């Protein structure tokens, strides 16, 4: 289809590699050496001592994944949460008796079908241009993007990386993660999910401006939902981290006189 336009990278090319500085761009290019890269649907390649596999973007955890958007049926706008995540895939010849297929996907810890290919790394800085996690407002009537914002601040490991010392006016990059959105009359809500901060953001649904950020005991791990009780609106979601067992948390605006 010609519309709507993609809301996420459609494969890897030199144009969507990170370019904060020429040195960082060079390292991203170096990280991809030995891999097959290309547009969406580039087929997997055979793993060998000299070939590391095919990089796919979005990867298995990338893009919208499961249940990461929310729809305003009155405006006809879909608010999409998208995770910029890539992965490497490869094929290997199975040992005799394991499969009647010529090739199977390399996967550990089953040595009889090879090993997982390593994902390309870039000295702690993602190899792709940000945002790493984004929210896109998609007009379903026109098939056009209304706005796109990075969901979350720039990760500390990127901000404080030695190669970033000369980078000025770094914009919010967002954080990678499978977060879900929720839309109300005036706002779009989203947390940062695993790998992000324990916070919950509220955006103006008309233009994507950040309105407020609320701290949570742990990152959002499930889709938020909203309900009314005794004339007051609440938002409830599941949260979870390594230090905090999965639990429900509800938030609401403070009472006013």
Features:
single chain, 257 residues, mainly beta, 2 helices, 16 strands, 5% helix, globular
How would you describe this structure to a colleague?
The protein is mainly β and 257 residues long. It has one domain. It has helices at residues 22-31, 156-159; strands at residues 35-36, 45-46, 53-56, 69-72, 77-83, 87-92, 104-105, 133-139, 144-150, 181-183, 187-191, 199-204, 210-215, 225-229, 232-239, 247-251. The radius of gyration is 21 Å and the shape is globular.
Beta-strand portion reads: 25-35%
SS-derived structural category: mainly beta
Q: Summarize the amount of helix as a percent range.
A: under 10%
**Cα end-to-end separation:** 53 Å
User: How would a textbook summarize the main sheet?
Assistant: 5 strands, mixed
Q: Spans with pLDDT under 50 lasting ≥5 residues?
A: 108-115
The figure for the number of domains is 1
Envelope shape:
globular
Report the count of strand segments: 16
Helix count equals 2
What is shown here, in short?
The chain has 257 residues and is mostly beta strands.
